[in-house]
Amino acid sequence: MEFKDYYKILGVEKAATEQDIKKAYRKLARKYHPDVSKEADAPARMAEVNEANAVLSDPEKRAAYDELGRQPHGRPGQDFRPPPNWDAGFEFTDGAGSEGDAEFSDFFAQMFGRAARGQRAQARSGPMPPMRGDDHHAKIELELLDTYQGAERTISLRGAHLDDAGHVVHDERQLSVKIPKGVREGQHIRLAGRGGAGFGGGAAGDLLLEVVFKPDARWRAEGRDVYQRVPLAPWEAVLGGAVEVATPTGAAEVTVPAGWKPGRKLRLKGRGIPGAEPGDLYLELEIALPPADSDAARAAYAALRQAFPDFDARRAQGA
Question: What predicted TM-score, i.e. pTM, was given to this entire model?
Answer without folding.
Answer: 0.73
